[in-house]
Amino acid sequence: MHDEADQIPERYDLIFFGGTGDLTWRKLMPGLYQAFRHGGLPGTGRVLAVARSEMDDDGYRAWLREKMTASQWDEPFDAQVFEAFAARIQYLAGDLAEADTHARVARWVAGGDAQAVVLYLATAPSLFEIIARRVAEAGLNDERVRIVLEKPLGRNLDGATRINATVREHFAEHQIFRIDHYLGKQSVQNLMALRFGNTLFEPLWRREWIDSVQITLAEDLGVEGRGGYYDQSGALRDMVQNHLLQLLCMVAMEPPVSNRADDIRDEKLKVLRALRPYQPTDVSRFVVRGQYREGSVRGKVVPGYLEEEGVPRDSHTETFVALRCEIENWRWAGIPFYLRTGKRLGARCAQIVVNFRPLPHSIFEGAANRYSNRLVISLQPEDTISLHLMAKASNRARAEQGRLAPVALDLDFRETFGAQTIEGYERLLRKLIAGRLDLFVRLDEQLAAWEWVMPILDTWAQYPDPPRPYNAGTWGPSASATMLAREQALWPEEI
């Protein structure tokens, strides 16, 4: 991959619509601060936050400082660095649906000489269409402008199609950056490097040598005061349609002809189009949805989903989904891909596990089992890659019996490359300013993902059975483990 820092123009404007929202102060501003701290924002870039709250520049900077000081940081928060960073930030109060707000934004942009202008829509998707129209009316859609759309982009295929059509009326496809922050994670980038930068794994990366692939995105948090929003979304829309399917594509894609954006996205699209579509009978067999009940997380009793603020007491919204799917092409035909995601699970983790086929015959006692050889790519809480193998036991008694023992070859990116590894949003913000599309989702990818999940949503709507309950702090409904047990398989925590 190219070095993003070399591509960033000397002068740029970065505008956050929704400047006081959770996404902005939890993810975007910290990512931008880290990029500044690490020397990744050269030049004289300006930042503008736009929101309804009445504040001036100093008031917004003080509000942001308070929020970011209270956040958790891998590196200690540096107040002096923050002050230098905050000097770049200005604030504009206004209604995002009103033309006058966007006219004032346009005047602010005209007051500088930016080579690149990034419009980041860190708002509810319901505002995407009106903001796209308003900024275009204000003249903020020339060639130097990029518009960034956060997920979820609509609630279904029709909604996503409509939003994209409206945005594309005013912006060319190369100006539209549909963001999925998992694509910016270090381990995902190293999955690409592992597969396409080395000779070791690619010959094994196919159905003849791989038994199954498991992808887990687990959170131990609940809806965290966002019950009203989450109840309109659910785990399938919030995590499967975007994050999980993007990770599946990164695992399963064919080698692209280059690392140019469209070459990479062409191969991801082929994977999405090769996913076997679900029939209604498949949904009941290969898709498990759940909803958390009261339980214990990290030693603390937590309420169930139906007791969360803003959640209707009769809600059938899923907080957990597990799926079995297949990719119908020559590389992967017949190989199960198990995907799952959920809230209030047993731990916060994101990992990809590639299980290699077991040996046809072992000459050792204590023979290797089905999961002895596997590659584990962890995305959070730490970025690591582990290759699990069998080795001669060092314990004297076991060694004398010729027994084998499991060992892991570990790569910890923090230990290898130091603490200043680039985080997901930090990397993606730099890509945005540089105008590089390789870590962003193309329209046809997004619509193909929606097409694949729609039969699940339609079946749930037609047969509105309640989700299966699971206690907070566990790994989801027992039906999730049962789905794998039918194929003599296990989730990673059971191995």
What does this structure look like?
The chain has 495 residues and is α/β, with parallel strands linked by helices. It folds into two domains: 4-178, NAD(P)-binding Rossmann-like Domain (Rossmann fold), CATH 3.40.50; 183-418 and 443-494, Dihydrodipicolinate Reductase, domain 2, CATH 3.30.360. The protein is 36% helix and 21% strand. It has 16 helices and 17 strands. The strands form three sheets. Strands 16-15-14-13-7-12-11-8-17 form a nine-stranded mixed beta sheet, sandwiched between helices. Strands 3-2-1-4-5-6 form a six-stranded parallel beta sheet, sandwiched between helices. Helix 5 (128-137) packs parallel to helix 6 (157-170). The chain is globular, with a radius of gyration of 24 Å. The chain starts with 11 loop residues before the first strand and ends in a 10-residue tail after the last helix.
